[in-house]
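Here is one chain, start to finish.
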Amino acid sequence: MRSNGLWLAALIGVGTLLPVTGNARTDVSVGINVGPPPAPVVVAPPPPVAQPGYVWAPGYWGWDGYRYVWVEGRWMAPRPGYGWVAPRWERRGPNWFFVEGYWAPHHHHGRRW
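Its structure:
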């Protein structure tokens, strides 16, 4: 019994000596082995309720852990020098991966906004 306690104390002591870094990465990529998402729902954007120049972010199919769910589009404040790239599903081999929407510089991938 005494040797078990010594091992526990030694492990705790070693754990307190290990360096701790504050730059942990949180990037996560999740593959879902289900069929493709349904076709997008075509919805005309409503008139902006915000200021002129706002950008329409169209709706998309999200995944709630069990099934696809439709996420409504929305108006967003513009970012000068950037264009909105809508979220989308990409097929990679037999799996589908969700790519979050993001703001890209105007000359991103040869696109001009």
